[in-house]
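Narrative progress, year one. The postdoctoral researcher (J.K.) led the effort to move from monomer predictions toward full complexes, under supervision of the PI. The following entry was the first complex the group processed end to end, covering 247 residues in total.
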Amino acid sequence: MKINDLIKNLNADIINIADVDREIVGGYCGDFLSVVMGKAPESAGWFTIMNNQNVAAVATLTDVGVIILCDGVKPDPLLDKKVRDVDINCITTSLSVFDAVKKSGL
Amino acid sequence: MSEALHLEFEVAGNNFVSAGGASDEVKKTLKMLGVSTASIRKVAIAMYEGEINMVIHAGGGRAIVDIYRDRIVIVLQDNGPGIPDIDLALTEGYSTATDSIRDLGFGAGMGLPNMKKYTDEFKIESEVGKGTTVTMVVNFV
C-alpha cells in the first residue's frame, strides 16, 4: 500500500513524508522500543503512541516504512525535528491504535 | 578488503539526544560498502541496543567497530556498575530500568536478548564495580 492511501484511510495528518512512493507492507503495534526493534518488519507501518525522539532512531535503524502516531498523539518537539532531519515518513491520526489498524487496510 | 575498516565512537551517558548516533554511522557505512540490507538491519538493532544500554546503565562508554569483507566485529566497553547476574540479565523481560526510562519507551527487558538474537557471536564480560565489555560479531550474508 502507498502512503497516500494509508493517509486517506486513517484521515491522518502528515508530520513528514520522505518517500511518497514507498510501499508499506504489513504493520506492527508497540510502544516498547526494544520490542519494536526486535519484531517490526522492514517497511511496516508502525502504530504507536510513543512520541519522543527515540522513536525516530528506532524507525530509522529498523527501516520501518512509516511511523503512525495514534490517539491524536503529536510528536514532541525533538521527534518533530528529527523525523524531518533524518527524513523519514511520519503521520498522526486521531484514531486509537485498534481503530487505526482496522481502518488502515494494511 | 583484507584489512578492517576501523571506527571508534564515544557514547555519552544519559544523553538520549545523541543516543543511536554511533549505530546510525555504522549503518550508513555498511550501506556505502554494499552490505546486504538483512545484515545491516541485524547490526543496526544489536548495536543500537548496546548503545542504549551504555547510555542508560553505564554512564556512557566506547564503541569499537571493525568491518571486514565478510563480517563486522563490535566491541562495546563501559566503566559502569557491571552486571551481577549475566544469565538473569539475558532473560527476556528482565530489566533494572527505572520508571523514567520506561516512560521513554525503554526498559522492556529486550535489550540484551535482542543483541544476542541478532548477532552470530555474542559475549559479555562483566565485573561488578568495574564495567562491562560486550563483543558481537555479525557475519554478512
